[in-house]
Automatic annotation (TrEMBL):
It comes from the Eukaryota. Residues 4-309 form the Phosphofructokinase domain. Belongs to the phosphofructokinase type A (PFKA) family. ATP-dependent PFK group I subfamily. Eukaryotic two domain clade "E" sub-subfamily. It is found in: Cytoplasm. This is 6-phosphofructokinase. The chain holds residues 39 to 401 of 846 of the full protein.
Length: 363
C-alpha cells in the first residue's frame, strides 16, 4: 500500500479540518493508506502514538470545527537536523513517503528542507543502524505537497489561504457589535487587526465595514498623515456620523519603518481632536470559531488536489503547493512561492514598494 501522512503546523486557522478530512477521505478513495500526524512536526519527531493510521470515520463531524483537531505546534526540534533525523526514522518505520503539510510559509520551508535532505538522512540512519538498508531502499524519496493554512493571506501564488475568509467574518462580526456601543457614546474605536506583515485582513475589513482610516504595512502613510486622518474623522462627525472606526494592521509601519500602534493612533486623536476614543485588540478571536462555508470548501478542494497530486506522481516529484487562482485549483512549485513571498517581505523591509508590486505581478 502507498502510505500518506497529513499534519498541520504553525498557527492554526479555520478550515484546516476540512482539508485534513479531504486528505484522509480522498486517500482512502484512491487506495492509499492515510495517517494523521498529531501536534505538527513535533508528532513527526516524536513518533509513537502521535502518528496514527486513520479510517474514514476518524474525520467524521470535523468539518464544522475551528482550529485543527490534530493539533499544531511551532516545533523547534524539527528546525535542527537531529530532529529531522528522528522524523525520517519515524516515517520509515511507518513506511510513509508522501506528506501533506498544512501551514504557513515557515512550515512549508521546513517541509522542503526535509524533502531535500531525505536521502542523506536515510543514509545516516542506516549508518547508525537505526534502520536497515532494506527499509531505506523501500522509501528512496519523499514527496510533499503543501497547503497554505493561515488567516493572513500572505502567500504568493494563491488568491486565498485557508482561514482568511473566516477570520474576516470574525472581524466584521466584532465590528458590527462595536457599532452599537460606539454610536451610543459617539466614540471613536481604534482596532488592531492580525496579519503579521500583511495588511490584507485590515484592508478588506475596512472595506466591509466602511472604516474611515486604515493603516497597513504595504502602504505606510505619508508624512502628515495624522492631520489628514483627523480631518477625515472630524468631517465624518460633522456630516452626522456618530462613530469612527480606524483599523491598524498589527504590522503597520510609518515611512521610517517605525511600528504604528493602536495606542499611537489613540494618542493622536486624543491630542488633536479630544474625541472619546477606545482601543480594541481583537487578537486570537480572529483565528477562532467555526470556519465559513468558503473555508470549508477551500480546505476540501485543496486537500483533494493535494492527494491527487501525490497519487499521480510516478516516482520522485518536486514539492508542490496547491493554490487557488481564479477559482481553479492549481499546483505550483512550492519553493518558488515561498521564495517570492520572502522577497516581498524583504522589499517591504526596504520600503521598495515598486519591487513589491513587480514581485506580486510575477507570482
Ligand atoms: O499567522 C497567523 C497569526 O495569527 C498572525 O496574524 C499573528 O501575527 C500570529 O499568527 C500570532 O501568532 P501566535 O498565535 O503564535 O501568537
Amino acid at each position: 500500500d502507498r502510505c500518506l501522512a497529513v499534519l498541520t503546523s504553525g498557527g492554526d486557522s479555520q478550515g484546516m479540518n476540512a482539508a485534513v478530512r479531504a486528505v484522509v477521505r480522498i486517500a482512502l478513495f484512491k487506495g492509499m493508506k492515510p495517517y494523521l500526524v498529531n501536534e505538527g512536526y513535533k508528532g513527526l519527531v516524536e513518533g509513537g502514538e502521535l502518528i496514527k493510521e486513520c479510517q474514514w470515520t476518524d474525520v467524521t463531524h470535523t468539518m464544522h470545527k475551528g482550529g485543527t483537531i490534530i493539533g499544531t505546534a511551532r516545533c523547534k526540534e524539527f528546525r535542527e537536523r537531529s530532529g529531522r533525523l528522528d522524523a525520517a526514522a519515524n516515517l520509515v518505520k511507518a513506511r510513509i513517503n508522501n506528506l501533506v503539510i498544512i501551514g504557513g510559509d515557515g512550515s512549508l520551508t521546513g517541509a522542503n528542507i526535509f524533502k531535500e535532505e531525505w536521502k542523506g538522512l536515510l543514509e545516516e540512519l542506516v549508518r547508525k543502524e537505526r534502520i536497515t538498508q532494506e527499509e531505506a531502499a523501500l522509501l528512496p524519496y519523499l514527496n510533499i505537497v503543501g497547503l497554505v493554512g493561515s488567516i493572513d493571506n500572505d502567500m504568493c501564488g494563491t488568491d486565498m489561504t485557508i482561514g482568511t475568509d473566516s477570520a474576516l467574518h470574525r472581524i466584521i462580526e466584532a465590528m458590527d457589535c462595536l457599532v452599537s456601543t460606539a454610536s451610543s457614546h459617539q466614540r471613536t474605536f481604534v482596532l488592531e487587526i492580525m496579519g503579521r506583515n500583511c495588511g490584507y485582513l485590515t484592508i478588506m475589513a475596512g472595506i466591509a465595514v466602511g472604516a474611515e482610516w486604515v493603516l497597513i504595512p504595504e502602504n505606510p502613510p505619508k508624512e502628515g498623515w495624522e492631520e489628514s486622518m483627523c480631518d477625515k474623522l472630524k468631517s465624518s462627525r460633522e456630516k452626522g456620523r456618530r462613530l469612527n472606526f480606524i483599523l491598524v494592521a498589527e504590522g503597520a509601519i510609518d515611512q521610517e519603518n517605525k511600528k504604528i500602534t493602536t495606542s499611537d493612533v489613540k494618542k493622536v486623536i486624543d491630542s488633536k481632536l479630544g474625541f472619546d476614543t477606545r482601543v480594541t485588540v481583537l487578537g486570537h478571536v480572529q483565528r477562532g470559531g467555526r470556519p465559513s462555508a468558503y473555508d470549508r470548501i477551500l480546505g476540501t478542494r485543496m486537500g483533494a488536489a493535494a492527494v491527487q497530486t501525490l497519487f499521480e506522481a510516478k516516482g520522485e516529484m518536486d514539492a508542490f503547493m496547491i493554490a487557488i487562482r481564479g477559482n481553479e485549483m492549481t499546483k505550483l512549485p512550492l519553493m518558488s512561492c515561498v521564495e517570492t513571498t520572502k522577497k516581498i517581505g524583504s522589499a517591504l523591509n526596504e520600503r521598495d514598494f515598486n519591487r513589491m508590486q513587480e514581485l506580486r505581478g510575477s507570482s
